[in-house]
Amino acid sequence: MSLAPKQTDRRWKDPVLPFVSNPAPERLPADLVAALGGMDVTRIADAVGRMYTCQSQLRSLTPTARPLCGTALTVKCPPGDNLGLMAGIRQLQPGDVLVVDGQGFTSWCLGGAELLKFARDEYGMAGLVVHGAWRDAQELEEAEIPVYGLGVAPYSGPKLGPAEVNVPVACAGVIVQPGDVVCASLEGVAVVPRAHARRVADRLSQAAAGHGIAAFMDDMDVLVRQWLDRSAG
């Protein structure tokens, strides 16, 4: 008696790489994170430089761009697949920012409002930064949950995995390490590397809050005169 060949489901591949769930990093002192949270994101961006300032397409997905600052708990997902998010949420601690690398895929979303409400209410999540899409923007606005991402999409994809939790992730041109500090506002998103967080906070606390525009314009006058003198010669 012959048996029919086993049918293979070819809709999805079966990667050999494992599901990785690393332990969460030791959090930075709360007062240090709070000090950075009290700074304007533009000043933080100036302090960390272009390598740690996210590209401008990463923006608030709710009408109100609520300020956000906290320790990064990172998740790397296949495009449109959110199984890794579930493992990441289970590791959240109060004040953490969930940073999700969805590889820039925006044709469908990685989750919705109910998932983030659960993460906030049960684990104290401060907000979400996603290199991909999310949904339920109006519900998130009403829930006052800060969400920054690349776009809004209504369809929620599969939960197949694998995924990686607490690994370096790519987010709008910036590599975010677990334990880094992520700061966001209407101006955009900046990342403070964990190893330099105290140095950045100290620098910003010592610098004047304003831009010193009068002195800046005086410096620019010197540069303009140098060009004019060169042109006259």
UniProtKB/TrEMBL annotation:
A GO MF term: metal ion binding
Coiled coil: none
Protein name per its UniProtKB record: Putative 4-hydroxy-4-methyl-2-oxoglutarate aldolase
Residues noted as binding substrate in the record, renumbered to the chain: 112-115, 135
Binding site for Mg(2+): 136
Cofactor: a divalent metal cation; Mg(2+)
Record InterPro entries: RraA/RraA-like, RraA/RraA-like_sf
Keyword terms of this UniProt record: Magnesium, Metal-binding
CDD domains from the UniProt entry: RraA_family
PANTHER family listed in its UniProt record: 4-HYDROXY-4-METHYL-2-OXOGLUTARATE ALDOLASE 3-RELATED
One Pfam family from the record: RraA-like
